[in-house]
Amino acid sequence: MSGAAFRSIGRHEPRREDARLLTGRGRYIDDIAVPGALHACFVRSPHAHARIVSIDTAAARALPGVVAVYTGRDIAPHTTRHRMAPPIEGLQPVESDTLPVGKVRFQGDPVACVIATDRYLAEDAAERVEVEYEVLPAVATIAQALAADAPRVDDALPSNLLSHQHATHGEVDAAMRGAFRVIESSFSMQRQTHLPIETRGCIASWDAGREHLLFQVGTQVPHPYRTTLAGRLRLSESQVTIVSPDVGGGFGQKIALYREELTVAVAAMLLERPVRWREDRMENLLASSQAREDDCRTRVAVDAQGRILALELEILEDFGAYSFYPGNYLARVVAMIVTGPYRIANYRYDVKVVLSNKVGNGPMRAPMAITSWLMDGTLDEVARELGLDPVAVRRLNMLQPRDYPHTMATGEVLADITPRETFEGVLAAIGYEAFRARQAQARRRGEVLGLGLCTVVESTTYGSKFYKAAGIPGSGHEAAWVRIEPSGAVNASVGLGATGQGYETALAQAVAEGLGVPSSCVKIHLGHTDIAPYGMGSRGARGGTAGGGTLYLCAQQARRTVLAIAAHRLQAPLDAVRLQDGRVQRHEEGAWQDAGLALADLARLAYLDPLALPPGMSPGLEFHQSYEPPPMTYSNSSHACIVRLDVATGAVHIERYVAAEDCGTVLSPVVVEGQQHGAIAMGLSGSLMEHVVYDPATGQNLSGSLADYLVATAHEIPRIELIPMHTPSRATPAGIKGMAEGGVMGSIGALMNAVNDALAPFGVRADRQPLSPTYLRSLLRGKQATENKQ
Amino acid sequence: MSEQRITLTVNGENIEFEAPARKLLSDALREDCGLTGTHVGCEHGVCGACTVLVDGRPQRSCLCFAVQMEGHEIETIESVGTPQRLSVLQQALHECHGLQCGFCTPGIVMTFEPFLQEHPEPSEAQVREALSGNLCRCTGYQSIVDAILLAARRLREGAAS
Amino acid sequence: MKPAAFDYHRPASVDEALGLLARLGVDAKLLAGGQSLVPMMNMRLASPAHLVDLNDLSELAQLRVSGDRLEVGALARHRTLAESPLVAEHCPLLAQAARTIGHGAIRERGTLGGSLAHADPAAQHTLAAVTLGARLTLAHQGGRRVVDAEDFLRSAMTTALEADEIVLSVSYPRLAAGEVSAYRMFNQRHGDYAIVAVAATLLLRQGRVESLRLGVGGVAPVPQRLDAATQPFLGRAASVDWVAEVARAARDAVTPEDQPRVPALLRKELTETLVARALARCLERSGVSA
After folding, report:
1. How far apart are CA A277 and CA A269, in angstroms?
2. What range does the domain containing B7 cover?
3. ω into residue A222 within 30 of 0, thus cis?
4. Measured between beta carbons, which residues in chain A are less than 8 angstroms from residue B90?
5. What is the pTM of this model?
6. Of A450, A391, A513, A411, nearest in space to A655 by CA
7. CA-based nearest distance B157→chain A, Å
8. Does C35 reach chain B within 8 Å, measured CB to CB?
9. What tens digit of pLDDT does each residue of A187-220 get?
10. What residues in A contact C267, CB-CB < 8 Å?
């Protein structure tokens, strides 16, 4: 299926979402008025690690407007405990209470919930809840977590080691022994947080008569969320409806069922009044899931030309205190895909994930973000060590187009990707040779420039086979329905959760393409679990492939039925009719001609005159489809970044940023471009300045406001040049590959590699983030640039 | 410390309600005036999502109390264009894909409607500088910058003709 | 993040405001621009029982030349100072600093008096005031007093302002003929408080340095004026080498403390770099090519 054949897919269609969002008529969770709703506010631990000795709520309950105050003990009988125990070797099963009963495990851990008539009063009351704590020593670093006499974050576990996974593929030791050189490099990524501009929030309404819970919440995964919520409340899934309205960003933070939301649901059921909660920004920085804190080390065995003979990867991850997600998952994906576009048969990895007294981790846009920096950064180190050109080293090790499909050392199969092409594409676009000349001239003037490259192979859509092979419970499928109304209007739905991706527009294009109607006829319904079919939701970059793919297939199913009706009506052979732009065309006298039938005519037949349908066909035009994507779908991109370092101050200025990308068939080019900009911006922002800092002595979270947790503004993010080099997948509907996270991976690698290219003449290397002036000056202090390096 | 009667002039209309002095303008607009287009992102003046116009000037509505605003003219996003008739800036944002989740968007529109009046021919650097007071996590800012520059050009052309 | 409850007062005149303060004392906090106070109240780091809103006191927003000084009302907004032709003409350093404060919406609202009373060590206005030798006129119900900026600023977030006092106005020396100024700050992200900032004024007479004021913010609890360190450099010919020497002397003169995210050494280095850049700019503005 070539792009030239598409009528709807691939067109630039301005978004339908915009009309309401631009004019302030969106409907985010906090905008929804619920008369009589009470407001929740959480009392949170000021300590990183402490026993809860007692909680006195009397003074709080006495305040005007306060209806109830619940502690962990009050909530416990009404929910099951949280259990995270997937059958994965090396992963410790963990359990925890809804709200902590015995002890708190991070600063910000919620210990009580105040319910009052408004949020202001609830906060007054929260200040009056008296909690007596017995402070315990905190685990605030990976080293502390692994120390022999470390305090235990989870008393039920023998140590703070939550997960340990390792594997060896090929002949690693032999390759190391026979190497020309073994080069070791370290890479540390700091703790970050997703920071959607809209914080979390929910509204719980319990209908005591029907025994039904309506739970409105901004979520990326409406159905899995419902299943989990019902299970925790010991309700049947039939008793819970999730409605996700407009959501102000998710990035992975709005997937798990958190304790706060669960507590709000319990409160609504106990009080038989609607209860709502809006997380404030301080809470979001303290108690919403965080991500990325990894210390990594690579060792590569190379020959004299820089060919990689073997790779060893060690990852240590700080997972925080609670498992909102399986502890092995994120690091395991990194280990599985790190070799990416490079030919590496001998590969060993060792991944340890530890608990600490920090907020529990969750997947943050590109959970495997460190992957590409690890791999391309290692190649840069090989080049520096051997005095080779980094481009030559990449070309030597990168798989050629003829090598695909290629089975990676870990068994992952790469197919239909084009890293070599995007690499050469970005090199040409950035003007590699010309830059090296300019860099040398600049150096003579005392100006420090650097260029970084990073090629990304992005795992976008995980199929059930992948989960099974990796021992991770879960399904990769998606489900959709398409209904053609009697008037010819088309409604469609899929199990995704929208948080800004333009689904209403892009997915309408997928349906329109599959069916043969203008996209303006199609309306997409998302986020309501009574309406949408059971799907796995929006995570990773699966929206395009899994969501768009399922809808496309379902629409094709609808088209086949519609055309059968048309053929019957026209007494024409099936292959002589087609539907285009909502009208039936018939192939007559060597050309397609309008047959005088619109989709509406056929729909009217199906609903109101079923006896005129082809024999054996049921009335109505409603179709349902589920789709299991391939075990893994990949897209790829190559990134190049030029930086200028202000050596005196340690400031990094990004002069130019280019990315060449292959995301397969693109549903909506403008949406894809926006996703790429956003992903790259997030990676750059994280590398430059984001950092959730926990005090290593006390475990206190020092990043409780946006004055402390810095996110890049329009002033720091450069103009991003994108070069589309899309080629379709042969394994997915319409050739969609999906994308959304590769930009994060590529920008981290490209920026770090650019800075290190700039630092090379000084004989220093940045092996951690963020690239703060303090850090860069600490590297540069007392160092002089020497002429001969690179 | 109890509730008092407050009258705000919002989008040309006088709205009267009862609220305590401590009620933030952002909350009063959203709850007491029923205008939920102004969004709350941080409540400490950094993200800019809550930006409204007070006497024609952009202001963070999370950093003042509703009661302070008596006697002033407040304009919120609801006064700028409608789905059927977007302002020049809103139309440009639409065409340039200058929004994704839309949460930061009203704050950006309210910041730039007056900006465009004062800077008919802004440079990209000026636009980025002015935009740096509004955080966006979705777009990477570029499409917003392009939209603002496009709107400026269109306003100049409109003024010329 | 909702603030605690308070009684709200909105005086219509300075006298009324002073009367309120006399009565309420330490239980009252003054509300000017609110760009620093309200975030603290929202985070419940500050929960005053009474708030006295000064924003109706338009007499406190005046700007005027008074003899050899420029008098600026305490309620003057940062934006006003950044754009005022009067300020540009008579005290451009004030404008150069004010235009870098935060972002547009913050500059619309934030005030000179509020910023000085807040006394953040890294703020623009405190640095400008100390560097220029500003004088603050304070009023209480019983009368007024004039305090030099360096006496007004006692320590980080601490001033000489009594509980019953308001800053009425701040006076700055007018720029001498031929005098130029520059303000340079360094932060990691646009619009944030400075890590280190430098304010400088320079007067050359036939290429020789007749007067030099140099102030550094962010290296001590209050902005530092480096008169002692710069004294030896007066009377000399202004040049690139001269700039470098003054910058080094400034670096040696400041004694910042180590802080977890910013070591003292970095602040010293930034002092040298920013002094060099500020003075280079001053030289440019004086018509001396660097």
Report:
1. 15
2. 3-79
3. no
4. 22-23
5. 0.97
6. A450
7. 23
8. yes
9. 999 999 999 999 999 999 999 999 999 999 999 9
10. none
